[in-house]
Specification:
about 220 residues; Tetracycline Repressor, domain 2; 10 helices; about 0% strand
Length: about 220
């Protein structure tokens, strides 16, 4: 007697399509909001680029505001996921600190949408990011992990200064982003092309040296 083949459970096509559609809408929305800001962004342009209709956007996200917040969540999740790959709890604390600076610097340099989204949101005084519980929930573990890294490095003698984790992280961000956010004006002020690859490589080295020096690490390690 031939036994019937067992049926394999698969995700419903409708569910897969819904997830794919939402992902496509979010991808397009990030580009639209990063280029035009919240007020300048247009739902029509998003629907055209995502090849959907406005009803789908309001069905999945509820409103333009909620779509914008979801786009903010998306760009912050991307960098938080990269940072989560670092092992803050084991290994050489000096090397981990170096990797955190390099990761942050490289991420900002290679992800213009993140910088534009955050820059635009700052122009709105953080009005919408305050409404994202997700961003707060994703970010606090990073600060906690940096704090533990500092404790471990200081306790082992690898760091001679016990830095405040928030202050340290904000310094890393500033060293990694200020020349990008203000490049057109700063370039004129200092007489340098801040978009030059060689200059940016020197800036990356400088950022690492500044942070490691602040932690009290000999640069010949």
């Amino acid at each position: 007697m031939i036994q019937p083949k067992p049926t394999r459970k698969t995700e419903p096509v409708r569910s897969r399509d819904a997830a794919r559609t939402q992902a496509e809408i979010l991808s397009v929305a990030v580009q639209e909001f990063s280029e035009h800001g919240f007020h300048g962004a247009r739902i029509e342009r998003i629907t055209n680029a995502a090849k959907c209709n406005s009803r789908m956007i309001y069905h999945y996200f509820g409103s333009k505001e909620k779509l914008y917040i979801a786009a903010l969540d998306t760009v912050f999740a991307a960098i938080r996921n990269q940072e989560a790959r670092l092992d803050f709890s084991a290994g050489d604390p000096v090397e981990t600190a170096r990797q955190l600076v390099e990761l942050t610097f490289d991420y900002f340099a290679n992800n213009a949408s993140f910088l534009k989204m955050t820059r635009n949101e700052n122009l709105l005084d953080g009005k919408y990011i305050q409404r994202s519980q997700m961003i707060r929930d994703m970010s606090q573990p990073l600060i906690t992990a940096i704090g533990k890294l500092i404790d471990r490095g200081y306790g082992s003698g690898a760091f001679t200064r016990k830095a405040d984790p928030v202050q340290l992280y904000l310094s890393i961000v500033a060293l990694s982003a200020h020349h990008l956010n203000n490049g057109p004006t700063l370039g004129v002020v200092v007489g340098k092309d801040l978009t030059d690859a060689g200059w940016q490589a020197d800036r990356r080295t400088h950022a690492v040296d500044v942070i490691l020096s602040y932690l009290g690490i000999a640069q010949d390690r």
